[in-house]
Amino acid sequence: MKKKHMFANDKPLSPARHCLVQFFQSRFIGYALLLSLLFGITHLLGFRVHTNILSGTASLDPWHQFYGALYLLLYTSFVVLVPVLIISGLLRAGVAYFRERKV
Fold it and tell me: Residue 25 domain-assigned?
């Protein structure tokens, strides 16, 4: 069975390059980038100010509570999930690299 190439006229990928392609095609990395982007957007929009819902001093405006909860959810996922997703993507790419080399 022939190996699939990225393009029709492309030469076979070296194991290291194949590993890099696998890394960026990984869903883990895509989810990590998406969570990082969403957290960055909410941080730049100033949603951090609305996290005072934790101390009970928040306004009664439901949108402020929503912004605070969204920021907390994205912050927690950024701190906890993104490193795990990146490590998982690296491990997946490393396994693909060693399978390609047949070591």
Answer: yes
Cβ(58)–Cβ(52) below 8 Å:
yes
- The number of folded domains in the chain is 1
| Segment 43-95, tens digit of pLDDT | 999 998 888 877 777 667 888 888 888 999 999 999 999 999 999 888 887 88
Each residue of 28-48: pLDDT tens digit? 888 899 999 999 999 999 998
Structure tokens at 5: 């190439």
- One-letter amino acid at 43 equals H
Domain that holds residue 50: 15-101
Q: Please, are residues 67 and 43 in contact by the beta-carbon 8 Å criterion? A: no
User: Does 36 reside within a domain?
Assistant: yes
Residue at 63 is within a domain: yes
